[in-house]
Amino acid sequence: MYLLFFVFVFGVVGAVPLHFVSVGHTKLQARYGTDNGVKIGEAYGRLSGYLLFFSMIGIWVSPQPRFTVRVLPKVLLLFPFINLSIPLTHLIIFLFGFLPGFFLLYHSVSDLSRKVSEAHQPEKVVSTGIYARVRHPQYLSFILLHIGFSFLLSGLYALLATPLVFLMLYAFARKEEAELVKEFANDYEEYKKEVPMFIPR
Questions:
Q1: Domain that holds residue 32
Q2: What does the pLDDT look like over 147-182, one tens digit per residue?
Q3: 166 in a domain, yes or no?
Q4: Cα Rg for the chain, rounded, in angstroms?
Q5: Are 40 and 32 in contact (CB under 8 A)?
Q6: What CATH number did the domain enclosing 136 receive?
Q7: Number of domains the chain is built from
């Protein structure tokens, strides 16, 4: 009955090896040459990004058991045409996840550039703007958005998948940092000492 949910979970997990390949810039360039290595890395980066994006949406909206946290009045909004009701508590939790999550995502893409965000091909260590406060603002935003949308849509399985989402994003961050140390050496090591990974200053 809930097979579609697990198909999307498989999609999220499937994005991991694609992402790992995409950030292995030195290995790709050594194997395929500089230009081809960059292009292949960009292709893998975009593929992993789109797979992750659509799989996460699938996790939120796919059929699954629903839950309700009843602290405030039971229902704020009713959408009978899609059989959805949103408890007030869930809406508040959603806003606490969505608003900072969207803020972080917007500013991280702006500070890094859309091309670098999609293709994972940085030309330097970015340590200004939102990156002066947290090393991985995009991944922090994904965690906040995931929790927010899980509550908004009352998806029990989606909420229970939160540790998996966090572990996946943590693995992404560790892999990226290992590659960035190879590429930028002391510049990135110093940046790591100054700026926390996920918890902003």
A1: 3-194
A2: 999 999 999 999 999 999 999 999 999 999 998 888
A3: yes
A4: 19
A5: yes
A6: 1.20.120
A7: 1
